[in-house]
Amino acid sequence: MNLHEYQAKEILCKHGVAVPYGILASTPNEAQEAALKIEQVSNSKYWVVKAQIHAGGRGKGGGVKVAKSIEEVRELANAMIGMQLITHQTGPEGKRVSKVLVTEDVYFKGEDPLKELYLSILLDRKERKNVVVYSTEGGVDIEEVASRSPERIFKEIIEPIGLQDYQIRKIAFKLGLSGDTIKYFANFLKAAYDAYLSSDASLVEVNPLLKAADGRIIAVDAKMVIDDNALYRKPSVAACRDMDEEDPYEVEASACNLNFIKLDGDVGCMVNGAGLAMATMDIIKHSGGAPANFLDVGGGANATSVEAGFRIILKDPNVKAILVNIFGGIVRCDRVALGIVSAYKEIGSVGIPVIVRLQGTNAVDGKRILDESGLKVQAAISLLDAANLVKYAVV
């Protein structure tokens, strides 16, 4: 589960990470009031207005602006709230901005020059351990640094015993830090790692991580991704979920305990098991088609979940055919067949070809149910046959 910047900063701040003082605003008036309060608390002469969406690259897309007056804060908030912000991570359709974060500007001048760094904590699945990824080249172009100069990106593997002081010093030295700044950095990294572990996060990313003129280490921007499997034991974190930022099809599927990812093809897929779902999409692509979704109804599929899957698939106007591919192991094929019949009855005329392949437990009973239903459903024996039927159906 992705968190907004302001939510990630709230969690980091609770664990002792220094972040710019900021206030969330949903209207231009609220943004102006926030700027006035920030001025009183931090004596900041400039403010930063930041669009809150689940995507990176907001600065390049016009979603991060510096205001030099209270009135300008209001003007920027008025322009951002309601806009469709397009970045390299949103796709051409962009994402609608419903709120902005107004923060103090921490980029003040001093004798010691400012320095933008990059740091993230995440799980290295190959090593099966947590890892700190860091670089001296922080800022908006970190992706280009990773692509063009990978030698500037460093990694520090954290053993199960936990983050050690010598590792913190090693990271600090490679980042070019010295003096009291190393103490600030040590406090920051320990706090950030504690936030990562206690929140059951799969990613904490701070970019840029600012070495301020007075030597302080400040998380100017922050991103957190929480492990979905741990949300049941983190109700306060689960409450941060923003449904408006998620695909509506995926939200509905999640409510029905279905694993669904929308794609851009025209063949709707309903399969039980992630591996079989991947193989089904591969064979559809191999046959010249294009899958419109990944939909895994799971091992406990029944008539209700199959009907819900049909409803979700049929909401996509691009779908021209549906392929149901069920291997009956734990799930029973006759239950899936009953779900298909029920879906037809509840939804009415489906209007597009439906190809069904049932193999395994009670497959014969499942085929009999479909045959006796009178529905216009095409049966397939092999997966390749099913894919070819779909291919001809969408031509």
What would your notes on this structure say?
ATP binds at residues 50, 57-59, 106, 116. Keywords: ATP-binding, Ligase, Magnesium, Metal-binding, Nucleotide-binding, Tricarboxylic acid cycle. Mg(2+) binds at residues 207, 221. Substrate binds at residues 272, 329-331. This protein is an alpha+beta fold and 395 residues long. It has 3 domains: 1-19 and 108-245, 2-Layer Sandwich (D-amino Acid Aminotransferase, Chain A, domain 1); 21-105, 2-Layer Sandwich (Dna Ligase, domain 1), CATH 3.30.1490.20; 247-394, Rossmann fold (3-Layer(aba) Sandwich). Helix content is 37%, strand content 24%. The chain is built from 13 helices and 18 strands. The protein has helices at residues 5-14, 28-42, 70-80, 142-148, 165-174, 180-198, 235-238, 248-255, 274-286, 303-314, 333-347, 363-373, 383-394; strands at 22-25, 47-51, 64-67, 84-85, 95-96, 100-104, 115-124, 129-135, 153-158, 201-211, 217-219, 223-226, 259-262, 267-271, 293-296, 321-328, 354-360, 377-379. Strands 7, 8, 9, 10, 11 and 12 form a 6-stranded antiparallel β-sheet that branches. The chain has a 4-stranded antiparallel β-sheet with strand order 1-6-2-3, with helices on one face. α10 crosses α11 (333-347) and α11 (333-347) packs parallel to α12. The two termini are 38 Å apart.
Short description:
The protein has 395 residues and is of the alpha+beta class. It has helices at 5-14, 28-42, 70-80, 142-148, 165-174, 180-198, 235-238, 248-255, 274-286, 303-314, 333-347, 363-373, 383-394; strands at 22-25, 47-51, 64-67, 84-85, 95-96, 100-104, 115-124, 129-135, 153-158, 201-211, 217-219, 223-226, 259-262, 267-271, 293-296, 321-328, 354-360, 377-379.
